[in-house]
Amino acid sequence: MARNKMLRFTTLEQEYPTKRPAEMRREDFDEIYTAFEPAKASDQASRCEQCGIPFCQIHCPLGNNIPDWLMLTANGRLEEAYAVSSATNNMPEICGRICPQDRLCEGSCVLEQSRHRAVTIGSVEKYITDTAWAEGWVQPKTPAAENGFSVGIIGGGPAGMAAAEQLRAKGYAVHVYDRHDRIGGLLIYGIPGFKLEKYVVERRVKLLQDAGVVFHPNTDVGKTISFADLRAKHDAILVATGVYKARMLSCPGAGLTGVHKALTYLTASNRVGMGDTVADYESGILDAKDKHVVVIGGGDTAMDCVRTAIRQGAKSVKCVYRRDRENMPGSQREVANAVEEGVEFVWMAAPEALLGDADNKVTAVRAIKMHLGVADSSGRQSPQPIEGSQFTMEADLVIEALGFEPEDLPVYFAEPDLAVTRWGTVKTDHKTLMTSIPGVFAAGDIMRGASLVVWAVKDGRDAAERIDQYVTAKAAADKSAPAM
Ligand code: SF4
Question: Would you say the CB of residue 124 lies under 6 angstroms from ligand 1?
């Protein structure tokens, strides 16, 4: 493979696609980056030094063959670059948009460790795949032949979608059951359009449909259909429900009117963006317009909330987090974007109480300043309150973005044999990815706890492999069993 155009990091500066000005971004929910010009994408890809041990690839959960698709892009061989990129990833253009590359591939790029700055891997990945869609290179993975087996997947988020595509390509009849009216999980209802425009998800869903995957929206397993019935219908089941139960504030005033869970708020905004009528948005309950908004939390969901509130026309938006910027879980890039757009961060502070008026409507957040104490067993310094440091922030809308926990699936599915960990995630065998119930597998957040989309895709792909091994082995064993 030609190497003529690589190693240009010494002469070419790192450059990301143009970011729209913050004052323009605040007015709409469109993605904030413009597309790379072809020459720019090729130039940026050519900065890669083609490491013998590519740390970018090692630190990608999917093990994406990044050096090769950078070299192909640098040499204008985009169709091959897409083939390499899509060989390990079912939705590269989505990962290119929403992966926290600063914590994964780009953060691990050797150029980032030098004065040259990382190769802009995520932007090139997005460019390759958006080009592939435009050129018609993205085609449904229809199987060469049906294999006669079927798999039921509970949950149409990234883990379920990735598993569905892989299994369908192997010839399985694949049915995806989702409690929501649209497929995509958090990709469609959780992540705002300014990070991931919804047509990007919808065209992936259609691609799966075109491959023959059957979707069953508005199907709440455990309510609309029983888990037992589903097991009887399919040769294997994959549980990929994600984790949706919000962690809630426990301080006084947490139940006041005007206090909402992050996902309730984001779902309403995303629905409105897709043309739905949302009563609680129309009435102003879930609309931040002209309000003083306080978001509690420091993860990526909190960043999504603060930036949504800005776009809805909030009077002020504050993000309150109990640690400092260096110790927050969210992407630093997203924090920088939020700051540019007008969000105020209140670091090292935790809510002590939410204050309300005579109608029980929230009016303020009383917080206390924190300092970082000794490190806990995870190595992170625990925040400790500073006595007497209380202060108050005006608030008409308070959003709790404190993370997510699994629902009680054994109860929800009326399946007490489904073993869960002490955190409530579904237990799986590390090798087979099978749960405590034969033929039932788990993938994504419900198996590993709330995590990144890229990990969900990885889990979905791994589960598809193990399901195929299980079904194939079981069929062979059933065939060779002596007739009774
Ligand atoms: Fe290229 Fe950076 Fe990966 Fe090395 S670590 S192969 S320079 S992208």
Answer: no
> Are 241 and 171 a contacting pair, CB within 8 Å?
no
**Which domains, from first to last, does the chain contain?**
8-135 (1.10.1060.10), 150-243+406-480 (3.50.50.60), 286-401 (3.50.50.60)
Query: What ipTM, to 2 d.p.?
Result: 0.98
At 426, which amino acid appears? Answer: V
Reading the block at residue 133, the tokens are 């869609």
Ligand 1, atom nearest to 118 Cα: 2
Burial grade of 283 (CB within 10 A; 0-12, 13-18, 19 or more):
exposed
- Tell how far the Cα of 60 is from the centroid of ligand 1, in angstroms: 12
Establish whether residue 50 lines the binding site of ligand 1, counting it when its CB lies within 6 angstroms of any ligand atom. Answer: yes
The CA 188 to ligand 1 mean position distance, Å, reads: 31
Ligand 1 near 74 CB (within 6 A): no
Ligand 1 and 309: CB distance under 6 A: no
| CB of 184 sitting under 6 A from ligand 1 | no
Cα 109 to averaged position of ligand 1 atoms, centre (Å)? 5
- In a structure prediction context, what are the per-residue pLDDT tens digits for the chain, which is 484 residues long? 444 688 899 899 999 999 999 999 999 999 999 988 888 999 999 999 999 999 999 999 999 999 999 999 999 999 999 999 999 999 999 999 999 998 899 999 999 988 899 999 999 999 999 999 999 999 999 999 999 999 999 999 999 999 999 999 999 999 999 999 999 999 999 999 999 999 999 999 999 999 999 999 999 999 999 999 999 999 999 999 999 999 999 999 999 999 999 999 999 999 999 999 999 999 999 999 999 999 999 999 999 999 999 999 999 999 999 999 988 888 888 999 999 999 999 999 999 999 999 999 999 999 999 999 888 777 778 899 999 999 999 999 999 999 999 999 999 999 999 999 999 999 999 999 999 999 999 999 999 999 999 999 999 999 999 999 999 999 999 988 876 6
**What does the buried/exposed string (b/e) look like for 316-334 if buried means 16 or more CB atoms within 10 Å of the residue's CB?**
bbbbbbbbbeeebbbbebb
Residue 467 identity (one-letter amino acid): I
What 3-state class would DSSP assign to 355?
strand
Rounded Cα–Cα distance for residues 185 and 180 (Å): 8
Single out the residue of 159, 201, 210 nearest to residue 462, CA to CA: 159
CA 119 to ligand 1: nearest atom: 8
